[in-house]
Design a protein that fits this description.
alpha/beta, Arginase, Chain A, eight-stranded parallel sheet, two-stranded antiparallel sheet, 10 strands
């Protein structure tokens, strides 16, 4: 009789590291959250609840069991030291890059994206970023802090510069952020208008997808730290993701699930399904 370790993994993500093409891992950090904390529990909630979905996606006609994904678990991240947290994430992703793995990170708050991006830019100097979110995240600082989930896309812009970041679904931010975007990023307010054109323009280029789950309307996804009314539907988001089958995704993340704010568990179930579709995009 074969005895297996009782180690919980995301459903369908059971390949060994050396055999996997994609590595999914959690970054449970919400140390700069500016409204309601709790996103640090997002990755563990997804792992626990993923058994509630199927490994097969009828949307893509693919199965997680047929793509090679390794679940690396959650990183051990310290409290109260944002720079060290980002360095741990960066070092982990640097290892993945050296082993030719595709990283898919589960936040945590959105700032964790900054740690993941740096090793990818070293490997792909012409990296482009697709940012799906309710918020601009283009503040230069928030309450005197440049390392904040409210500033993450501005920090990414500091690294990649103009013309490399496209933003969709944005419906909240300071006026100065929207003004900044007019000359430094491509920003589409409220919806995904223009996504087809941008995907065509990104053909052949390495692309990183960063998805803040609060892009979804709170009536669909209330389990988040900064809910914003007026968001997209699940079907609209899914359609946008499926269009990304035509681009070269070299990494991705989903952030800002705070499961405690949705006692029904629906937000976590939605996050699980979105993660499945992203893993199928990167892994197959």
């Amino acid at each position: 009789m074969k005895m297996n370790k009782n180690v919980q993994t995301i459903i369908g993500c059971e390949y060994e590291y050396q055999d996997a093409n994609t590595v999914v891992f959690g970054a449970p950090f919400d140390g700069t959250t500016s409204f309601r904390p709790g996103a640090r529990f997002g990755s563990s909630a997804i792992r626990n609840e993923s058994v509630g979905i199927e490994t097969y996606s009828p949307y893509q006609d693919k199965d997680l069991c047929d793509v090679k994904v390794y679940d690396g678990g959650d990183l051990l991240l310290p409290f109260g030291n944002t720079e060290k947290v980002l360095k741990i994430i960066e070092d982990y992703c640097r290892k993945l890059m050296s082993d030719d793995k595709i990283p898919v990170m589960i936040g945590g708050e959105h700032l964790v994206t900054l740690g993941a991006i740096k090793p990818l830019i070293d490997k792909y100097p012409d990296l482009h970023i697709i940012h799906l979110d309710a918020h601009t995240d283009l503040r230069d600082e928030y309450l005197g802090e440049k390392l904040s989930h409210a500033c993450v896309i501005r920090r990414l812009w500091d690294i990649v510069g103009d013309g490399r970041i496209v933003q969709f679904g944005i419906r909240s931010g300071e006026k100065v952020e929207f003004e900044f975007a007019k000359t430094h990023t491509y920003l589409q307010k409220f919806n995904f208008t223009g996504l087809d054109e941008k995907i065509r323009a990104l053909s052949g280029k390495p692309v990183y997808l960063t998805l803040d789950l609060d892009i979804l309307d709170p009536s669909i996804f209330c389990g988040t730290g900064t809910p914003e009314a007026g968001g997209v539907t699940f079907t609209q988001l899914l359609d946008a993701l499926l269009k990304m089958r035509d681009i070269h995704l070299v990494g991705a993340d989903i952030c800002e699930l705070a499961p405690a704010y949705d006692h029904s568990g629906v937000s976590t179930a939605v996050a699980c399904k979105i993660l499945r579709e992203i893993l199928l995009l990167t892994g197959g």
